[in-house]
Amino acid sequence: MIREMSVDDIDMVLEIEEDSFVDAWNYDHFVYEIQFNPFSFLWVIENEEKEIVGFADLWIMFERAEIANIAIRKDQQNKGYGFELMQHIEKLAVEEGCETISLEVRVSNKNAISLYEKCGFAIINTKKNYYYWKGVSEDGHFMMKGI
Ligand SMILES: CC(C)(COP(=O)(O)OP(=O)(O)OC[C@H]1O[C@@H](n2cnc3c(N)ncnc32)[C@H](O)[C@@H]1OP(=O)(O)O)[C@@H](O)C(=O)NCCC(=O)NCCS
User: Fold this and answer.
1) What residues have CB less than 8 Å from 139, skipping those under 6 apart?
2) 2-146 — its CATH code?
3) Nearest atom in ligand 1 to 114's CA
4) Catalytic: 51?
């Protein structure tokens, strides 16, 4: 089941976030996204036991939608949850009148790139050293889908 993320969910979401990204968002960042960012829509996805197994954050800026964050708990990956969240994201973006959805992804993140390609996204260009964390940089693909 997919439902809106609330502040009460952040502790669980943070566990997934910190396990997924070296440059993980912190508690305050999620509070900002939920309570103060007027452009953001956040959801969690739960399994049958009602445990949070993933989340997504979509920014809707007029005719453009941007996936700011998406992650699935490591032990729950490859079960279709990421694809389900992507379908949900696209549905909302269409309902909100968006014309495109875009995102950035590390060039090494083959699983995510494969998910996005399965969802109809194409690599538009590659941003040199787009990611930088503690002295290590990596290029990022800019991917987009017309909807
Ligand atoms: C990317 C991510 C969200 C995918 O979520 P998921 O729930 O595992 O994905 P799904 O089970 O819905 O799989 C959908 C598609 O993604 C791709 N994919 C997912 N896991 C994969 C893997 N281990 N190997 C290859 N392709 C994979 C495949 O195209 C798959 O379609 P298929 O099953 O028909 O082959 C998940 O791997 C994740 O959270 N990664 C860490 C965080 C992250 O990188 N987020 C994206 C930042 S840009």
Assistant:
1) 106, 107, 126, 127, 128, 129, 130, 131
2) 3.40.630.30
3) 29
4) no
